[in-house]
């Protein structure tokens, strides 16, 4: 027979549900997973305390709970109930039917009945039922939830902790179920009835607060408030953490082989170009823009339905790849950019959306009619984008407008100056392209008689609010100037390999104190996964160092290592955007992703990862801490299969695969 383990979160929810409705029957379902014959029940979804029959409400609740479980990569593994009479521990007929239905989808489904008479005794007070064919009977083996039993609690002190939380803090009164959701009475819990904000989390956290320094924090406790801001982050053995753990109703204990890391920040992505991602990379930049980019952007501007479809898919792909914050180039048309903003806000992503400003174009049908028209359109978009979120609480306003002069070849000097003035007046971020490709750089020199950087600087567009993409043709003097202006750079190593004759001088920029983050540059770069950008950044820097050595040049190494690239993908990008995210600390919004390295029961790696030493012994795997070598292996070989959960501003997003 399979072994069953009940987490603290699942147990507390069952306990609170029964305690809140002592005169009523209550029921719900259990969420979990099976690995190597061991079933971990990690959560419970409280369903009903009123309509406890197999009613339409029950069917709807089961369906919603099933979808929620699937979005987390879990199964519905069981059913629980409490009877109306405290001395009744029989599984009700409706329970048998629901458990049987769950067994059709999960063959080792179990049912738990609450023993009301012993609920306050300090014992588990749960009676397991298992199926024998179509009949459900109480488990007849060793006493359940005792040492060595087939049924175990995550910690033996859970019943006593639950009693304290009910008697001293009345936390059960704050507990809601699907019935409460249906009745929608004043005072009912406002959070989603199935799950919502991140509960207290205990386990391993990985972050890089400073370039080149990686922190692997074992056995830390992280707590967030209702606005998704971290209120406590400290070692679990600290006195304050110990006090919180004693009172926490639903602390999540991360399994071994799992860690939480800040979500990625993509500093440069052309949303409309996601339409043709992976095509057209054989052309030089200026030809590629005319042949692919402008056509795709123009197409979405003329087809709002297609734009919404493309942007919705883009949002899902970003979440699934671990990106929680993104700086977006949009298109020219206001409506299309507002669709982009709406989609990103609805998806729960932290997004900065830029309506393109361009009064010059090599494609006559794709530009704004005049400088005045372009400036008015930019101002109007800013107002309407802000209006999308103005009625939301501040912590839920995830989308912001950003001024976006495409690059110097598509903007007159008058337009650049006007946008610089608008940015200063409205305190707006700015994004553009700077010194990206040889044909673009030479065009600016010929037509304007200056370098790109001069055109931006004299227009008031090199500011602490500015992020310039690429900058591959800049040298140390230019980096010194950019640093003095407080401007940040979006390093896009993959697209630079295709469209620039020069690699970005990353080490020199960092040494001059320039703020640098990473960008995918869809569709100039073909991969939406920022992990590809991290790896490419390291590869390019090592090639530059190799060329330097071959040339016999001395001096500091130009190479960066994987830990530095992780900083660029998280804290570096956040700093470029003047955000406090990208790290874990008190007062910082919780933007994060959960990574699974290996199966805690058998040591088998997840996805492309292998941990042969751990596979030798499941016991070793269950007690093995996350090490720097493991994180490095994930950095090198990991992919979306390792990402299991995702949060922005403390709210969990749907990180399930699209297909």
UniProtKB/TrEMBL annotation:
One of its GO terms (molecular function) is zinc ion binding. Its cofactor is Zn(2+). One of its GO terms (cellular component) is cytosol. Residues 4-135 form the MPN domain. Keywords: Hydrolase, Metal-binding, Zinc. CDD domains: MPN_UPF0172 (cd08060). One of its GO terms (biological process) is guanine metabolic process. The keyword Hydrolase applies. Belongs to the EMC8/EMC9 family. This is Metallo-dependent hydrolase. It comes from Mycena alexandri.
């Amino acid at each position: 027979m399979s072994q069953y383990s009940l987490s603290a979160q699942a147990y507390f929810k069952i306990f609170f549900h029964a305690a809140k409705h002592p005169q009523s029957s209550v029921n719900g379902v259990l969420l979990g997973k099976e690995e190597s014959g061991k079933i971990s029940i990690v959560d419970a979804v409280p369903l009903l305390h009123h309509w406890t029959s197999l009613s339409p409400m029950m069917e709807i609740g089961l369906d919603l709970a099933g979808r929620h479980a699937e979005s987390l990569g879990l199964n519905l593994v069981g059913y629980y109930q409490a009877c109306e009479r405290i001395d009744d521990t029989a599984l009700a007929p409706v329970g048998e039917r629901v458990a049987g239905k769950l067994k059709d989808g999960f063959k080792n489904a179990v049912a738990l009945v609450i023993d009301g008479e012993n609920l306050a005794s300090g014992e588990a007070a749960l009676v397991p039922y298992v199926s024998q064919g179509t009949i459900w009977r109480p488990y007849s083996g060793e006493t359940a939830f005792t040492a060595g039993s087939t049924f175990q609690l995550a910690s033996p002190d859970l019943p006593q902790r639950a009693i304290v939380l009910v008697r001293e803090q009345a936390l059960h009164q704050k507990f809601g179920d699907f019935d409460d959701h249906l009745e929608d009475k004043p005072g009912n819990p406002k959070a989603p009835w199935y799950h919502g904000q991140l509960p207290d989390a205990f386990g391993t956290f990985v972050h890089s607060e400073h370039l080149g320094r990686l922190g692997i924090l074992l056995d830390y406790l992280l707590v967030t408030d209702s606005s998704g801001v971290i209120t406590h982050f400290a070692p679990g053995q600290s006195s304050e953490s110990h006090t919180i753990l004693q009172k926490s109703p639903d602390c999540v204990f991360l399994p071994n082989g799992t860690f939480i890391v800040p979500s990625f920040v993509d500093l440069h992505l052309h949303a409309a170009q996601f339409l043709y991602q992976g095509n057209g990379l054989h052309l030089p930049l200026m030809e590629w823009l005319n042949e692919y980019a402008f056509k795709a952007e123009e197409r979405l501007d003329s087809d709002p339905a297609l734009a919404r479809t493309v942007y919705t898919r883009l949002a899902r792909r970003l979440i699934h790849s671990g990106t929680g914050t993104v700086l977006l180039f949009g298109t020219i048309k206001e409506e299309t950019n507002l669709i982009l903003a709406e989609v990103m806000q609805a998806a729960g992503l932290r997004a900065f959306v830029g309506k393109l400003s361009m009064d010059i174009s090599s494609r006559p049908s794709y530009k704004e009619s005049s400088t005045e028209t372009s400036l008015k359109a930019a101002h109007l978009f800013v107002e309407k984008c802000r209006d999308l979120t103005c009625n939301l609480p501040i912590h839920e306003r995830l989308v912001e407008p950003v001024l976006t002069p495409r690059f110097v070849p598509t903007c007159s000097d008058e337009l650049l100056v006007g946008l610089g003035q608008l940015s200063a007046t409205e305190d707006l971020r700015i994004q553009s392209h700077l010194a990206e490709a040889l044909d673009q750089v030479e065009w600016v020199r010929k037509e304007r008689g200056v370098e790109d950087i001069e055109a931006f600087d004299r227009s008031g567009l090199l500011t602490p609010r500015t992020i310039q993409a690429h900058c591959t043709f800049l040298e140390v003097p230019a980096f010194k100037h950019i640093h003095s202006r407080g401007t940040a750079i979006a390093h896009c190593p993959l697209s630079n390999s295709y469209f620039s004759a020069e690699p970005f001088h990353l080490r020199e920029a960092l040494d001059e104190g320039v703020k640098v983050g990473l960008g995918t540059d869809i569709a100039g770069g073909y991969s939406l996964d920022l992990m590809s950008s991290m790896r490419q950044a390291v590869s390019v820097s090592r090639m530059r160092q190799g060329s330097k050595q071959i040339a016999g040049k001395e001096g500091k190494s130009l190479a960066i290592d994987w830990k530095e690239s992780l900083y660029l993908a998280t804290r570096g990008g956040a700093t470029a955007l003047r955000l406090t995210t990208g790290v874990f600390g008190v007062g910082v919004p919780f933007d994060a992703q959960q990574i699974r390295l290996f199966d805690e029961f058998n040591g088998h790696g997840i996805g492309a990862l292998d941990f042969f030493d751990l596979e030798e012994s499941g016991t070793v795997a269950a007690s093995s801490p996350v090490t720097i070598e493991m994180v490095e292996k994930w950095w090198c070989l990991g992919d979306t299969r390792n990402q299991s959960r995702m949060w922005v501003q403390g709210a969990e997003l749907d990180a399930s695969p699209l297909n």
